């Protein structure tokens, strides 16, 4: 069992023993100590048959569909319960405290049947608990396999982009030098495009970059779109807070901007796309993107897909991010908060 499962088991048994204690004390018996000890030894006997089934029988035989061994193991479960209870109540208690649970002559078969009947419910509880745990483990295993498959696909996709990046850089440098002779603004555009491609193909060991570089990428990205739309591109990009040497996952912010540009209104000065990057604390980033919805576009797909971005955030920032999306008939807003 892992640490979390152990905590759940301790909590369950603790609550059960506390319930016994409150019930016995509430009746105010004259032999309170005796009853508490007997109830405690009974619970220990229940634990023995529970973990015999939970840790030994079901994992070893039920998962592998070994029915003869499973039936034999379950058949021995009442023996485990009876033997444990006998050692605790008929041997240990008389030795330590001078009393036992059964006084006088006890019919052997009656003793065995009584204990078998009492141990059977705990066998069923163990079966249910093991079934829940096994289902959870299988689901976790499937999710991990899916994540590994997605990671492999992402690595393959990344390797495809790395086939010959130097060829792309050299070609863009050549185009830049030729364009500079014709038009400096055109050459500047080629240079920005080269910077974007270099940033996209760069891979750091931990997958993170300096936040300033991520912001520079966004600004270059918006500049290229502004050139494309000429004077009909209205996007407000505001940065609040001081950027120092914070690091952030590469290309984690741009999908929100891409989505806004693809599905939002960009050509109306009274309805600009609003992008705000806020650093309320050195290790806390908030990224807000708000756009008016373009109801006249033909393509209603979500581009790279926010679902993929959610999975990426879950991998990169587990329990360290919050993503909120609000949409009405006219506007679409996303808010991402990260603990850097």
TrEMBL record:
Gene3D superfamilies, A to Z: Histidine kinase-like ATPase, C-terminal domain (3.30.565.10)
Record field: transmembrane: 7-26, 32-58, 70-88
UniProt-recorded Gene Ontology molecular function terms: phosphorelay sensor kinase activity
UniProtKB keywords: Kinase, Membrane, Transferase, Transmembrane, Transmembrane helix
Entry keyword annotation includes Nucleotidyltransferase: no
Domain Signal transduction histidine kinase internal region: 154-233
InterPro entries on file: Bact_2-comp_sensor_kinase, HATPase_C_sf, Sig_transdc_His_kin_internal
Signal sequence residues: none
Pfam families: His_kinase
One cellular component (GO) term of this entry: membrane
PANTHER family the record matches: SENSOR HISTIDINE KINASE YPDA (PTHR34220)
Name assigned to this protein: Histidine kinase
Record lineage: Bacteria, Pseudomonadati, Bacteroidota, Cytophagia, Cytophagales
